[in-house]
Each structure stands twice: as C-alpha cells, then as structure tokens.
Write a structure and sequence with these properties.
single chain, alpha/beta, TIM Barrel, two-stranded antiparallel sheet, 10 strands, binds zinc ion
Length: 277
C-alpha cells in the first residue's frame, strides 16, 4: 500500500491535521513546526496531541514529518543567523519529543560565499549541538536543487554531513523529486542509476521520506519551483515509476505541489492510488 500525505496547515492543531489527512486518503502529513519565516512556536496542547495519537493509531498512520522553517540557515557566515537556526532547531527538537518517533526535516542551508566545506562544518556544529543519543526523533537533511550557494544538492555533500555527525543513527535524508531533478539527477530517464548512486554514497536505508513534486523548470536547471504532478518537466509516468520502484514503494511520500486547497492534494492522492494500489 502506498504511504502518502501532503503538506497541511498546522494552525488548527494535530487532531485537525489528522482528520484532514484521513479526508484525502492520506496516512501521514507534513507540517511546519512554526511560521515558515521562523517566529515563535505556538504552545503544544497535550490534549490535542493525545487525541491525534489515538486517531493515528486507529487508522495506522505512518510517522509524520515536521518541517523546520525554510528561512533558517545553519550554514550562514553571520553568527547571529547561525545562532537563530540553532535556537529554533533546539527548541523544535525538544517539542518533537512530545510526539515521539516522528521525522524532522530541514534545509541544510547556503554557504553564501564561504565555500561548501566551511558551510558543512557549520551545519555539523549545529547538528552535533542539538542531537542527543536519547532523542526519539529522526532528523532529515533535504536534498536541495542547488540554487545560489545551497548545500545538499549532491549526495556527496549530504553524505559528508552525515559522516561528520556524532549521533548518526538520528540522521536520515528526505529526497525531494523536484529538487534532485533540478540538481541534475535524471530520475526521469535513469531512476535506477540515480538510486544506485544514492545507495552507494548515502545508503537507501537513510532515505526516510520523499517530497513528491513535479518540477516547473527543466532538468538540471538548479531552480526550486514545484509543480503539480504530471504538469511539469518530470511528468506523470516518471512519478508513477518512482512511487512504484521496489526500493522506494514502502517509503512515505509527501506532496508539496502548489494547490489552491486540499482538494488538489486529494485528487493527486487518488490518481496515485489508482495507479499503484
Ligand atoms: Zn523543504
């Protein structure tokens, strides 16, 4: 069975997101831990969490995927920018323990002229500060498209971050289909080759989640513009081949396609389930 969810608004709490997920035939979802621009997080409501956990258990949910604000830059040259990323991520780690055994995804960041190797050192400093052997959350590095000076657009860079992290069993990768295609990995014409490369450099066992998006811009364009499934340069056939690939079909997929409302996600999930299940 296909495990799939979509990015939902966290404004009305976890139980609400769980019910929304059910209403679109999803068995997981993604949400921002706080305003994506990075403000203070709302207080967690223990009753809401408990009600969600009951619903998730009843309906056999997969782990849910928290997403850090995308404006954080753990690789920044500016110490204040880095301190802010550290503070937000440390706070998120603490809050995630209220919902144990779930996933937390973040963008590794941009080195902004310092060079990738300095940027990677800064990212690892933050990870080695916030990760503890006791925590119940797996932190995911997202594959990036490589726009500007983004780190994480090659499997080798992600692998280096993992290798230099102390709590390696708390680290995984979230592969974004739009980003990797934009970064120059041809998952449309050579999916087996790309997966073999990923497995050799990172290990497919580290692949814990997939952001399932089509791409508005062409292959290898180093842009980050998501598109609805089947409407972009990847195309529906490649997307179906992706979700049905033997090495991927058990992984959880998360839609981040541009939609006016939840009906758009519902239609995409129905389309995928019809093709897969
Ligand atoms: Zn992301």
């Amino acid at each position: 069975m296909l495990h799939i969810g979509a990015h939902l608004s966290a404004a009305k709490g976890f139980l609400h997101m769980g019910k929304e997920a059910l209403s679109i035939q999803a068995d997981t979802f993604q949400f921002f831990t706080r305003n994506p621009r990075g403000g203070a997080a709302k207080d967690l409501n223990p009753q809401d969490i408990l009600a969600f956990q009951e619903l998730a258990e009843t309906h056999g949910f997969q782990p849910i995927l928290a997403h850090a604000p995308y404006t954080l830059n753990p690789a920044a040259a500016n110490p204040e920018t880095r301190a802010f990323a550290l503070q937000v991520m440390a706070d998120d780690m603490k809050r995630m323990e209220a919902l144990p055994h779930n996933l937390y995804n973040f963008h590794p960041g941009s080195h902004v002229g310092q060079g990738a190797s300095v940027g990677i050192t800064r990212i690892c400093d933050i990870l080695n500060t916030i990760l503890t052997p006791e925590q119940n959350t797996t932190v995911l590095l997202e594959t990036m498209s490589g726009k500007g000076s983004e780190i994480g657009s090659t499997f080798e860079e992600l692998s280096e971050i993992i290798q230099r992290t102390v709590c390696q069993d708390k680290i995984g990768v979230c592969l974004d289909t739009c980003h990797v295609y934009s970064a120059g990995y041809d998952i449309r014409q050579d999916l087996d080759g790309v997966l073999e490369h990923f497995d050799r450099v990172i290990g497919l066992n580290r692949l814990k989640a997939i952001h399932l998006n089509d791409s508005l811009t062409p292959f290898d364009s180093h842009k980050d513009r998501h598109e609805k499934l089947g409407k972009g340069s990847l195309g529906l056939e490649a997307i179906i081949r992706f979700v049905t690939h033997p090495a991927l079909k058990e992984k959880p997929f998360f839609l981040e396609t541009p939609q006016d409302d939840i009906t758009g996600y519902k239609n995409e999930i129905a389309l995928l389930r019809a093709a897969v299940d």
